[in-house]
Amino acid sequence: xxxxxxxxxxxxxxxxxxxxxxxxxxxxxxxxxxxxxxxxxxxxxxxxxxxxxxxxxxxxxxxxxxxxxxxxxxxxxxxxxxxxxxxxx
Length: 89
Known about the structure:
The chain is of the alpha+beta class. The protein contains 3 helices and 3 strands. The longest helix has 21 residues, at 29-49.
């Protein structure tokens, strides 16, 4: 998926991307916030390595604040450890 985003950004030079990092609720909230930001920044670094200019990409961390799955099982927690993409023209 990230490769397709890089390709789309390469073709559409006027698009900007926001990468939003998320985490599970395991651990301390402050740590989860940091992990979520690291996750988003890792994706940003990859896109930059693919030739996308850094000024077209912003990052944000939501941490554990917006889960998409209940935290009842490890499988659910894995779903919450993710990044989301927002493209703006």
